[in-house]
Structure formats: C-alpha cells, structure tokens
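For the sake of clarity, the format in which proteins appear in this thesis is described at this point. The fold follows as a row of integers, each naming the local backbone shape at the matching residue. One such record is shown here in full, so that the layout can be seen directly:
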Amino acid sequence: MPLLRIQLDTDPITARRVLRLHQEGGIDHESREAAREQVWRQGRTPSGDPVFVGVTNGRRHVRLLYDVEVYSDTVP
C-alpha cells in the first residue's frame, strides 16, 4: 500500500513532548488523529493508523511527521 507523508504544524514545546512520548513507547492520540483527518481532507482513505516518524528541525516552524498507509485506489 502507498504511504502518504503528513506534516502537522506545531510549536517546539509540543514537538518535544510528542517526540519524548514516542521514544518512551507512548502515542500522542491527538496528533495521530490530526494526521488521520489530514489524510481524509486530501481525499484519500487511510488503511491503518498513522505512524509517527519524527519532527522537522525548524526553530519556529516545527512540524510533526507521520506516515499513513492509504488504499491504492484513492491515490491520484
């Protein structure tokens, strides 16, 4: 299945919190659901849960990165 990379705008404090939570084996449900909603807004159907892959390096404009598998028939 194709992967779609989702970038969610956030602030540096939240990015560090989500990264630390992920490193400890947890899940930030709020950002994961936001990634899922972004997939739907792009007209695609997620086939699984979003997977956290990291954060960008920006000082002001930080983004959370998620990979989401989507059904191939919904990819343009």
Notes: The chain has one domain: 3-74.
